Each structure stands twice: as C-alpha cells, then as structure tokens.
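From the shared-data thread, chain only:
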Amino acid sequence: MSKDMTVYAAAGATLLSVAQKNKVPLHFECENGECGSCAVQVDVLSGKQPLATHLTEKEKVALKLAGKISKEQIADAELKDIPPPWRLACQFIVRDEEIVVRF
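Structure, as tokens:
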C-alpha cells in the first residue's frame, strides 16, 4: 500500500468496513468496539465544524483505557460536538465529509 490513499465511500458505513472493502490493511481484532485494536486518528479536512461525533460507550471505554482520549475530550465530544483525535474504526460512522485517517 502506498503511504497515502484516497477512498470514496457512501455515508453510513463504518470506517472499518470501508477499509476492508478497499483492501486498506487496517488492524482489527474484535470488530465490536471492545478491544481497541482498530484505533485511528481522524481529522476533518473541510475546515468546517465536523458532523455529529457520537462516541459509543464501548469506544469511550476502549480509547480511555488505551490512553488515547481523556475525560475532558469525551465531555467535549458529548457537550460541544468537538471530536476527539482518536476513534475506533469499527465504531466510527462515515459521514458526508472529507477526512484523513492515520493508522
């Protein structure tokens, strides 16, 4: 795989399913949000306020235990719609926006 890759996806799929469909070698184990092995950094490219940043309970626990996000970042996501820098690919739902994913 080249260092950078552009992939187009229909909104509503998980980031992990998009990666699998496009043969992006994204590491994962459980596909259920419990192990945290598919943690990725997600940045929105548009410069606009990101679309809804819903974090699942499993995602909050896995990312916090892994030291990827803080209590403050979880609160910001829930109260201010400010997305944390790390997400689980199996839980992140692709929206109608351009993003960069680092793994």
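The chain is about 25% helix and 15% strand.
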